[in-house]
Amino acid sequence: MLLYLFIGTILVGICVIIHYETLRFAALSILPRLHLRPARVLVLVGVIACMTAHVAEIWMFAIALYVLSFLGLEFGYDDTVRRTFFDFLNNSADSYTSLGYSDIAHLPKAHHLLNGVEALAGLVMIAWTASFTFLLMERYWRHHLPKSPDR
Predict the structure, then answer these.
(1) Could you tell me if residue 101 is left (phi over 0), alpha (psi between -120 and 50 degrees) or otherwise beta?
(2) What are the pLDDT digits (tens) for 22-77?
(3) Residue 57 located in a structural domain
């Protein structure tokens, strides 16, 4: 049990680093260099950066669980069907987005624990993305709004 929590903690830490560095790179390196007039384009680039981080994080969890399934630590699926990496990727996307577990009946308890950790990490990363997007919209829309006579 402690091993699974340790693995989950490491995966969450990597997830936070991926998200932080992606948003930092977008905010400090990409967006200031774009001199595009419509503010919606700048917001779009910021949202694409966020989506890139989410996809990388889903893949990171899927790769980790897929690799762990070969180590005999009760990871992977316990039915007789040999699962592919894309089964792990689908399960990771389901968990990260908190949609639910598509193949939960065939997952061992250790995988359930890490799915729960991934769901919590996904919830926090999605909230972080919402906050980042709000700040982008507030920043770029404020500068591009027409001035009203009473300002």
Answers:
(1) beta
(2) 999 999 998 888 876 677 788 889 999 999 999 999 999 999 988 888 887 666 66
(3) yes
